Each structure stands twice: as structure tokens, then as C-alpha cells.
């Protein structure tokens, strides 16, 4: 692959995706609001850009890995945005978790400019992004896929093609986030009950991770709790946002989501209690009367 590819957003996921593209032969241009992050990537052999527009002028494909729809709007249409600088026939790959209806509308807006669009939310965490083994939930036109198929495969072990127009990828990601948020909240509740009842937390973790009650989220996030390490790989406020999107989508069709609603309230409580930017496993801190493990 020799395509000039742009990556906007060098957070935990975006930086790994940019490196995966470089490993597979692309010339990778990057932009991040933290200029030092772009400079660090350029030191590895990438090209740092001063704005999304500068990046777009040099790239056929742009991969956006920012937090939400508002940041994506800014990247595309804000001051120094990339939409005005993108060539006709280029492709914008949107990897954020957003309202599916917003993604559908964005596809139409970009099509008016002759720009192809892939609705491509991602999952798997920073380690899998760095190794090119994450999951992408994508939808888009056949023409868009024809332009970027090998690049998607370079970034992800699983690239699911879920439809021939935007929206389907974001809908599946919303459902994934429903499960992820509920599973984290349930894992925290289970560990909190164990602590309240005086069960040794390490023993509880060992038993549950080898029993039918285990989940990927219990195994992953409760390890953070045992280590007393709330470094935000995925922050509490991410699930305030994502479960909020889940509820918005369901509310539009008057579909009840009682577990999602409860989990959302738990993350909201953790956020307002001062844990907004801690790892999402910090939702366990809302439970009263428990003594959490401390760093050894």
C-alpha cells in the first residue's frame, strides 16, 4: 500500500491505527489538537500536519478517530477543517461512536461535495488498535469500500461490512456499547457486593473468571480495581456519553431499555462524584460501605 492516508486524533486508539497503517506501507499524515502527539508520530516516520485542512490537501483517505460527533463536525467543517480541502473521490472514514441518524446525514453532506464516506465505529481497546487486531463495524457504498478496503484490513482483524449506506455501522456500535456499559456496571456491582460481604477480592476474581458468571468486561475491568489503577484507558464519561446515545436511539422509537437506563445513572453518579476522567471501572466507587483494594 502506498496511499497517502491521514489520521486525525492520536489518542489511545488513533495512535495505534496510524502505526498499523505505517506498518502496511502507507505514508501516514497525522493531526491532533495536541501538537506534541503529532510531532512524536512524525519522529517515527509519519508526517505531522498543522491542521485538518493541511492533512486533507495531501491525502486520498482520512481516518477520523476523535471522541464524538461534535469533534467530527469541527474536524470537517470548523476553522481549518478538512472538508473544504478534500478532493472529489477521496474518502472520509468516521470511527467515532455517534447517533446513527447523524452519521446518515453526514454521508449525504459529504456526497454533495463528491466525497465518499465510511461509517466505521471501532472496538477492541488500545492494545488491539496498536497490533491491528481491533474490530471495525462499517457501512458505506461499494465505491467507498473499493477505495479503502485494504486500508481497513490493515487497521483491523475484523472488518464487518454491515450495509451499503451509512448508519448500520453506528447502530451495531450503539448495541455493542449498550452491552459494554451494562457489563461494566454489573461487574462493578458484583465486586462491590463481594467486598461488602468480606470476600477476598483476588479470590473472587479468580473464581468468577473461571466460572459461568464471567464476562470480558469483568475480567478486564475488575483487574483494574484489584490493581487500584484507574488510569483512564476508557473513561467514566465515555459511558455517560455512549449510554446516553443508546437511550436516545431507543427513546426515538419508544423502546424500553431498563438495564441501560440503570447503568447510565451509575456512570452519571460516578461522574458527578468526581471520577469523570478516571477509568470506567471507577464506577465501583459509587457503592457505599466498601473498602476498595489499594495499590501495593
Structural description of this entry:
The protein is 51% helix and 13% strand. With 296 residues, the chain is an alpha/beta fold. The protein folds into 2 domains: 4-166, NAD(P)-binding Rossmann-like Domain (Rossmann fold); 171-286, Orthogonal Bundle (N-(1-d-carboxylethyl)-l-norvaline Dehydrogenase, domain 2). Strands 1, 2, 3, 4, 5, 6, 7, 8 and 9 form a 9-stranded mixed β-sheet that branches. It is globular and about 65 Å long. The model has no long low-confidence stretch (mean pLDDT 96).
Please supply descriptive tags for the structure shown above:
296 residues, Rossmann fold, N-(1-d-carboxylethyl)-l-norvaline Dehydrogenase, domain 2, 2 domains, nine-stranded mixed sheet
SSE topology sketch:
Blueprint: E1 4-8, H1 12-23, E2 27-31, H2 35-43, E3 47-48, H3 52-56, E4 61-64, H4 69-77, E5 91-94, H5 100-111, E6 116-119, E7 122-123, H6 126-131, E8 134-140, H7 142-155, E9 156-161, H8 168-196, H9 201-208, H10 216-226, H11 236-252, H12 258-275
Helix pairs in contact: 8-10, 8-11, 8-12, 9-10, 11-12
Percent of residues in helices: 40-55%
Number of strands: 9
What structural class is derived from the secondary structure elements? alpha/beta
Can you name the CATH architecture of the largest domain? Answer: 3-Layer(aba) Sandwich
